[in-house]
Write a structure and sequence with these properties.
Blueprint: H1 2-5, H2 16-19, H3 45-51, H4 53-58, E1 62-68, H5 77-87, E2 97-105, E3 117-125, E4 134-141, E5 166-171, E6 184-190, E7 202-208, E8 222-228, H6 237-242, E9 245-248, H7 252-269, H8 272-278, H9 281-286, E10 288-293, H10 294-308, H11 316-326
Helix pairs in contact: 3-5, 7-8, 10-11
Length: 328
Amino acid sequence: VEKAIHHWKADGLDLSPILSIEHLSSGVARVRNQGQDHEINEHFDNALIELSQSALKDGQKVEIDLPIRNTERAVGTMLGHEVTMAHGEHGLPSDTITITLRGSAGQSLGAFMPGGISLTLHGDANDYVGKGLSGGSIVVRPTEGSLFPPERNVIAGNVLGYGATSGTMFISGVVGERFLVRNSGVTAVVEGVGDHALEYMTGGLALILGDTGRNLGAGMSGGTAYVWKLRQERVNKDALTSGELEIGPLGAADKEILLDLLAQHRAKTGSPKASRLLEDPEGTSSSFVKITPRDYKAVLRTREQAESEGLDPNGDVVWNRILEATGG
């Protein structure tokens, strides 16, 4: 603080308008003078926590099946807190707590869920599904018996996977705008997205099985996207013109990843689109393109080369190579 105060850039700052004490009338509240009831005791997650006690205490597998309404928000978040408090940041083994919900979910379904919780929704969801997802698994699929084609209908709202760091999302249907904004580690499959998808994405993997909106990949600096029949005019123009994003065909390893994710998507959601694509693996692979940020690609290439030379991929030598390759 002392160094900051004496820095020459601070000489011209005058904070007195911010720090001044206004003379307010006696009836104006300056601090909190009334408690707030957030109705935590009535939250949907209390039931989930109660039903998950054997998993929380002893790590035993639990299966839960409940109806849900769109007034129930941030379902799975409080349960996730209990998992993290009991078992640490890595959570529980996969599928220790399996939750099936039926109906319409409110905002932030599965937000911040850690590893060990698998949540499947039969129905539809509001905005922010998987916000801050931290290792958990989320599946959203149409209600059983639905007659409409999922790939042509919206099943969830905007900003899915915002700021997510790890885990998986399989969405059988179209979602709204800003899909996977600031994603840094989640693998997500979806059947169509709105505008500004993959904005500021820094890591993870996106598989888009349908149309995209405009401004795809704006500010995307990391991660990979496989997009079906991409219309390049939908990609952020500046990123394309500058070469910040590279678009090309799938390699052999990419094709394996694509087909594996399609198989998982079909198994988890019953997706008709995934089933059709899997009927012709070679034709399907050629209908997808791979989007990778230029610098991210250079980093991966440098690290792979370093590992082949027996170097520590996190060592100073490798980092110097990375900075040189990316102009950092």
